[in-house]
Write a structure and sequence with these properties.
- This protein is mainly beta.
- Helices cover 7% and strands 54% of the residues.
- It is built from 7 helices and 43 strands.
- The chain has a 22-stranded antiparallel beta barrel. Strands 3-10-11-7-8 form a 5-stranded mixed beta sheet. A two-stranded parallel ribbon has the order 1-2.
- The longest helix is centred in the first third of the chain and has 14 residues.
- It starts with a strand and ends with a strand.
Length: 731
């Protein structure tokens, strides 16, 4: 059976109508089920070209994703550079189901990324998701990570893994995001890029790529970014650079990656419901009063060695080291800081870190075996200062004052892992793995005042074994079904251990790790022109780590009872001919998620909090996590070099706290872009323009979970535009 293209529109409209109805879980399951049967049977005139085959490294070996029992999607370089700013992953990862990437419009806090409901509570940085750049860890051993140093302008692709097999990468339950830098071009090539947009936003970049006669390959990238921001006191500047060297020496391949990023950003803070409803473009007065802001500098170098002893035996090793330095001025009132045990309103830390990941690979005809070990270490010198100097009417706010905290912290993990893949038969593939993790935290307090501020040194360690197993069955050529199950865990991060809810000094070593058991079933279809993935998952977590208090950018945490995250994902990519000289590419991503507390627990509604007393009922939704999202994109490309695209995104409401007393409302956004690529002599020029939020929708992009002042909402900008220019040339 084949269906004409003309019948697609009413079908898709009907499916979307079902999926977007409130409390229609059956509708989501219907959408996911029908997509995999209806879409492949669509007929088109003459196909323009086949979708490019993919190779992913979700199991640490490059392979066809069709036969592995896990949900893994890729975003290629065109999606990351096609009329985009090339600064934030939120520009491209919205097309991946199960992943929610929100641009806070606040570069002092980085993106908010959650995967299948994990990571939504993070006030800043990325939590519950392991991050890698060219195989080099971008997450710290405590599970905290940042994507601010990801270089999108020279990336080849981004891979996103969700589900049970995330556990094989260590301290994370939500998933894995890996970015891979493009290979050096065969002949020397340079690229100049420029982007100009709303709110005095601009980015200028340069990239050089090529291979030398001695076989050394080089990809160098540098850029400068600035924006005034959409609200007062939200400007930001970012300087970024990266260089990658590759060298093949007989059976050994060496890859050296060096990157650096420096960010200076004002922090406009969140808005209360009343402030947001009155004027989402305003900034709360305390941000201006204390000049809230943040500076970040990170430098990192990593070396990857791949040595093949034979066609079946190989050894790989990654060694890396770096340092991240942060200073953040917060809006803690002066009166609060006068208490002798209060650590002040300025956070300053320096974090040198290093690690090693070594593994042996055996790849016979029947599959593969990997045995490896990782050692990662982070040393943190953390200090706290008053955010004022002087007293009374003569006090100057928003500056670094007297020392109020001084400690040396260390977190170290020592892991061992093994995984294997078996081709049981030509149509049956089996994957299994296990990881043993030992994570140790040590804190040495150097700020001790007799009778006022005690010695708060302490230590804690967490040990867990996390297995995962799955199988994939090929029904017919191009159509597989799979099932997988596994266990993951998350230790507290140093940021989550950093403060006690009672206001007492010292780290909160009472926190326990959260442990998750997850099961996933899915189906994959591919015929060269259609790529369709559908997955349903069920995850149960015990000792869930939740926000207890959050005031002035300082959060405390506790363990709640159990939680359940249950949902469905579907992604569709298609390419077909609109005419003899034009091509249409379609992308559809659907996510439905129910994330709720299974057990009642007590929380705080103010800080400090000696003991939580307000009951969060069982059945409440996890805050910071949308229940559903839809992304649709259609792109038209003509042989002459012209292209145009339009996309739509709808996201359901997001609760702001565990009590579910308020929520950021659902929204629907539309964006459009157009571009023209042409040759001018030996140079290739790509010019484009895009407009986001075409209807000028005013909405909250993210929420600050359980914010103590009720300033939950981080507003997104209204309608914005961006013009881009990229010039590539040989040299």
């Amino acid at each position: 059976m084949t269906l004409p293209i003309s019948s697609v529109t009413p079908m898709i409209e009907g499916l979307l109508l079902i999926a977007t109805q409130r409390n229609r879980k059956l509708g989501w399951l219907t959408v996911a089920s029908l997509l995999i049967f209806i879409i492949p049977n669509l007929s088109a005139p003459v196909y323009a070209q086949q979708l490019a085959p993919m190779v992913v490294t979700g199991t640490r070996i490059g392979q066809d994703p069709q036969n592995i029992p896990m949900a893994i999607d890729t975003v290629d370089k065109d999606a990351m550079r096609d009329q985009t700013l090339q600064v934030n992953l939120s520009e491209s990862l919205q097309r991946v189901p199960g992943i929610n990437v929100q641009n806070r419009g606040n570069y002092a806090q980085d993106l908010q990324i959650s995967s299948r409901g994990f990571g939504g509570r993070a006030s800043f940085g990325v939590r519950g998701i392991r991050l890698f750049t060219d195989g080099i860890p971008a997450s710290q051993p405590d599970g905290q990570g940042q994507v601010s140093h990801f270089v999108l302008s020279s990336a080849e692709r981004v891979e996103v893994l969700r589900g049970p097999f995330s556990a094989l990468y260590g301290n994370a339950s939500g998933g894995v995001i890996q970015i891979f830098t493009e290979a050096a071009s065969k002949s020397p090539t340079g690229v100049l890029s420029l982007a100009l947009g709303s709110n005095h936003t601009w980015r200028a970049g340069t990239r050089a790529s090529g291979q030398f006669d001695n076989g050394l390959g080089t990809v160098a990238d540098a850029s400068e970014f600035h924006t005034d921001g959409s609200r007062p006191h939200s400007s930001a500047s970012k300087t970024q650079g990266q260089i990658k060297f590759t060298k093949q020496i007989e059976n050994t391949k060496l890859t050296l990656l060096i990157n650096s990023v420096s960010i200076s950003a004002d922090d406009a803070l969140g808005l209360s419901r009343a402030e947001f409803d009155a004027n989402p473009d305003q900034t709360t007065p305390s941000a201006l009063l204390f000049n809230t802001r943040k500076t970040t500098r990170q430098d990192q170098a990593g070396l990857r060695v791949e040595h093949a002893f034979s066609a079946q035996h190989a050894l790989e090793a990654v060694v890396y080291a770096g340092s991240r330095n942060v200073t953040q001025w917060q809006s803690i009132p002066v009166a609060v800081q006068l208490t002798a045990t209060q650590p002040g309103g300025v956070i300053a830390f320096s974090r040198p870190y290093s690690g090693l990941d070594a593994r042996y690979l055996y790849t016979p005809e029947w599959g593969s075996v990997i045995i490896g070990t990782t050692i990662d270490s982070l040393d943190e010198a953390r200090r706290g200062y008053e955010n004022f100097v002087g007293v009374g009417a003569n006090a100057t706010l928003g500056v670094t004052g007297n020392l109020r905290r001084d400690e040396q912290n260390n977190v170290r993990n020592q892991d061992a892992y093994a995984q294997s893949e078996f081709k049981v038969s030509p149509n049956l593939f089996f994957t299994a793995g296990v990881r043993y993790s030992h994570v140790r935290f040590v804190s040495e307090d150097h700020y001790i005042i007799a009778g006022k501020n005690p010695d708060d040194s302490g230590r804690a360690s967490y040990t867990k074994t996390t297995p995962a197993v799955g199988a994939s069955l090929k029904i017919i050529e191009g159509f597989n079904i799979y099932v997988s199950t596994g266990r993951g865990f998350e230790t507290p991060t140093f940021n989550e251990l950093g403060y006690r809810a009672s206001g007492a000094t010292g780290l909160n070593f009472d926190l326990k790790p959260a442990v998750s058991d997850s099961t996933e079933i899915g189906a994959k279809y591919r015929d060269g022109f259609w790529h369709i993935n559908v997955a349903a998952f069920d995850t149960h977590t015990r000792d869930e780590i939740v926000t207890l208090t959050n005031l002035g950018g300082r959060a405390t945490f506790q363990n709640a009872g159990s939680t359940t995250r249950r949902g469905t994902e579907a992604s569709v990519a298609a390419s077909f001919a609109a005419s003899s000289s034009a091509q249409i590419d379609l992308i559809l991503a659907l996510t439905a998620l129910s994330a709720k507390y299974d057990d009642a627990f007590k929380t705080c509604v103010s800080a400090p909090c000696v003991a939580p007393s307000t009951v969060v009922p069982a059945g409440n939704k996890l805050p910071g996590v949308p229940a559903s999202s839809i992304y649709i994109e259609s792109k038209w490309t003509h042989a002459t070099g012209f292209s145009a695209a339009i996309d739509a995104r709808r996201q359901s409401k997001i609760y702001v706290n565990d009590l579910n007393t308020d929520a950021a409302l659902a929204y629907t956004l539309f964006s459009a872009r157009a571009g023209y690529t042409f040759n001018a002599g030996s140079a290739r020029i790509a010019a484009g323009i895009r407009a986001d939020n075409l209807t000028n929708k005013r909405y909250a992009a993210t929420v600050i979970v359980n914010e103590g002042n009720g300033r939950y909402f981080e507003p997104a900008p209204g309608r914005v535009w961006l013009a881009t220019l990229n010039i590539s040339f040989p040299f």
